[in-house]
Specification:
Immunoglobulin-like; Rossmann fold; elongated
């Protein structure tokens, strides 16, 4: 396709008054108008003929087969031409669920290929597409531009982001010393699982003395206990419409999935059994709690299958079904969110019912921009209005969390950047205090 450029429009805009001025001076000079128009058309035709033909342009676009949600990936564009091109613009059309790449421009030299890198960031999981590339360049006079369309039709599988899980694995379990620091071992009198026998010395708890073993060995022996290693941890993820809202460029659900997978990995390494439950207006995904690191692949596949929903979350149906599936006391980590006290009433009622039999850890994602609005110094009257609304929402959020704590529910309300670390620390604290037993 050949299209006049802005330079051609400027030249035409300047030529028209000059041709009209000649006819004003002498009406017999109307031929100047015809000559100027013909000269312009000739210049356009010459520039179009001298411009590089699309068939001579070599274009190859390489798209990654897999990507992690929220993580940067890149498209590679290879360009080559037999002639010099002063300016070549490249725009790649991608799935709208990508943070689209910016338009790039480069100069081509004859026989010197150029490789461009276009950054991409997937905002949602699923199979996203890279559709086609559009290229535009001008002729040597800059009066016309030529365009070319290159079909790509590549699919990119966007999976949950496991980078935090790998980082935690290296940090907590990468060395013998680190692993020893993470193992949850308790001193005498704590924990519920028998660890070992040792000889009694002054300062130890006399209640830990085992009289039968002491009689057999003819010396006082005490029992050492450690934290139980086969607790059940169930990750319950709300996939309703509130969890589909973006937060720092990634949906709340994807932030929750990443943190849930990190917690699952740590729990499996520490000997617990982990399951996953997804729900919105009905139960969507269920994997029964199992132990062993082989379970992590199942959890990863199940979390990748959690779809984004536009439905209102039915806490009554979802949490009731989860409760019927649990045959023993478990740590249930509920990833969800709410907007105000009115919409949270039904959620509070059902979480309180679940907390009567299970230990519930309520996890919500805090919006840092809301805190910034509430605490920021207003510069205009509209900023004051925003600050008041943000403060009201923050107070209502704290009111709901306070009610949950009074019900005996553990609560974690954190920004996405701090959620994973705080969640693992809270889990380790629960395990250390033996709250599940």
């Amino acid at each position: 396709m050949i299209v006049p450029t802005r330079r051609a429009a400027v030249v035409a805009a300047l030529a028209i008054p000059m041709a009209l001025l000649a006819t004003v001076v002498d009406r017999h000079l109307w031929g100047v108008w015809a000559v100027a128009s013909a000269l312009g058309l000739v210049l356009l035709a010459v520039d179009a003929a001298l411009a590089l033909a699309p068939r001579h342009l070599v274009v190859r676009v390489d798209a990654p087969g897999r990507a992690a949600v929220g993580a940067l990936t890149a498209l590679s564009v290879h360009l080559a031409a037999p002639r010099d091109v002063a300016r070549l613009e490249v725009l790649v059309e991608v799935d709208p669920r990508f943070e689209g790449p910016a338009q790039l421009s480069t100069a081509l030299r004859a026989g010197r290929p150029v490789d461009l890198t276009l950054p991409l960031r997937a905002q949602r999981r699923g199979t996203l597409t890279v559709d086609e590339a559009w290229l535009r360049w001008t002729g040597p006079l800059g009066l016309v531009s030529r365009q070319a369309r290159v079909p790509i039709r590549r699919e990119v599988l966007v999976a949950p982001n496991l980078a935090p899980v790998r980082a935690a694995a290296l940090r907590f379990f990468g060395s013998r010393d680190a692993a020893a620091g993470v193992q949850v071992e308790r001193y005498i009198g704590d924990g519920t699982e028998f660890g070992a026998l040792r000889e009694y010395v002054p300062g130890l708890d006399p209640r830990a003395i085992t009289w039968k073993a002491s009689a057999r060995h003819r010396k006082l022996l005490v029992q050492e206990f450690r934290a139980e290693r086969n607790h059940q941890v169930v990750l319950a993820l709300d996939t309703g419409h509130l969890m589909g809202e973006p937060l720092e460029g990634v949906t709340r659900l994807d932030h929750a999935v990443t943190s849930a997978l990190l917690l699952a990995y740590v729990s499996l390494r520490l000997g617990d059994r982990v399951g996953l439950f997804g729900f919105d207006r009905a139960a969507r995904v269920w994997t029964a709690p199992q132990g062993g690191l082989g379970t992590f692949a199942r959890l990863q596949a199940a979390s990748a299958a959690l779809d984004y929903s536009t439905e209102e979350t039915n806490f009554t149906l979802g949490l009731t079904e989860l409760s019927t599936r649990l045959r023993r006391r478990s740590l249930v980590v509920v990833f969800t969110d709410f907007t105000d006290t009115v919409s949270a009433e039904l959620m509070l009622e059902n979480i309180a019912r679940l907390a009567r039999r299970q230990l519930v850890l309520f996890v919500a994602l805090r919006d840092p921009s809301l805190d910034a609005l509430a605490l920021g110094a207003p510069g205009r009257l509209s900023d004051v209005y925003r600050a008041v609304v943000a403060s009201d929402l923050t107070r209502e959020r704290e009111r709901v969390l306070g009610r949950l704590r009074r019900m005996g529910v553990l609560c974690l309300d954190a920004a996405p950047s701090a959620l994973s670390t705080r969640l693992v620390n809270r889990y380790l604290d629960v395990k250390r205090r033996e709250l599940v037993a």
